[in-house]
Amino acid sequence: MDNDRIKGAAKEIKGSIKEAAGKVTGRRETEAEGKVEKATGTVQRKVGEAKDKLREELDKDN
């Protein structure tokens, strides 16, 4: 499993928590930061998934 998958998933979780905390406390800045962090984590996780898929395909060919 690619490191980007793991780190991205962790960012997604952290961002979700931050977003929820911002909503609960009414702090729009914290909520927005959480949304950005969650989106960044999603992209990073997807990059890791793509790397894993590419490795699998290359291993099939060998």
Automatic annotation (TrEMBL):
| Spans annotated as Disordered | 20-62
According to the entry, every stretch annotated as the CsbD-like domain falls at 4-55
**Which Pfam families would you find in this protein's record?**
CsbD
Signal peptide region: none
Report which superkingdom the organism of origin falls in.
Bacteria
Cross-referenced InterPro entries: CsbD, UPF0337_stress_rsp, YjbJ_sf
Q: Where is the composition biased (Basic and acidic residues)?
A: 20-38, 46-62
Membership in a protein family: Belongs to the UPF0337 (CsbD) family.
Q: What is this protein called?
A: CsbD family protein
